[in-house]
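Sample pair:
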Amino acid sequence: MIIRFPNLHFYIEGVPRAFRILNMEFTMYGAMIALGLLVGLLTIWIHAGRQGKNVNRILGAVIAAFIGGTAGGRALYIFCNYSSYDGDLVKMLSLREGGMSVFGTIIGAVILVHLYCLLTRGSFLETADVLVTGAAVAQAIGRWGDYFNRSSFGEYTDWFWAMQIPIADVRSEEVTSLMRENLVDAGGISFIQVTPVFFIESVLCLILFFWLLTGSRHRKYDGQLYFRYMTAYGVIRFACEWLRTDRLLIPGTKIGLSLVLSLAFIVFFGLQGLVRSSLARKREEIRREGEERFYQDSGMQERIEQRRENSRQDYSEEELESEKAAIKERIRAEREEAYRQELEEKMNILHQKEFQKAENLAEEPPNKTGDGSVS
């Protein structure tokens, strides 16, 4: 079938929902998700290697995230659409039937990666900082599965990005009255004109990916990228959900589940990120103050002034900075040497005490019992 972008004068014919290989049918939706996962895995592998992480442990976390994400995404989707399955367990477990919740995928992945890190005694936040970069780019690509699936669209619009889909390719419950009032007939086919929400979310996730990639070079604490991703994706999804007409609703209500979860992500992870960032800044201030006090107590400034007075008068600023760096390095070496000597003295005292204790035990006569045995 054809999908049209009339305001951009862009028309794509033959957009398939599925394709066949060796008599096996594959959906384009699943193919785009698989492509996103492969690119995300490659991103994680490269990112982990550059940061000097244990690549094998990171790949183990990826497997855990994939299993947990698949189970969580499907479970949350079934929870919101349970009545449509009529209790058919086989249909519920059939992933070929489609139906995944992105928030369910994220929550399931986080839970299983937590368990994996507990079992392997690894840091969850350190691991998550690597995984979220791959997750962002995977979502940016995977969202294009909705393009082939004719889903994840919004209300009628006449903006430059307006997308036209044959009404026959869309479920009737997803077509609003406003869309029906603005049907477009072309070539004997009726089209609904909608907002391509999948495209908006894909672009925003790509921007989020580059933001995370840039932030990884200036990470101040473990979990910084993780909290940034969770908060930012909550904001992205909260904005996109207002545009969508095919929302997942909380059973028995007309409240969008993704709206509630995205708001929860913004509040929960946003607050954690703010608190941890504040603590990181305070730790950095304390470290700098301690370093300044150490240099002041060591008389570094006096050494610099004395060296300057004893040197030629035409001392350049570059040479002065070089002298400062050299003096700092000597002071650091002196401090390390003092610590080493202090440690050696303590170890010598400890060894002397142990040796004296052993001599005292050797000099003590053994206590004998009445039968001549030693007790």
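Residues 368-375 have pLDDT under 50 and may be disordered.
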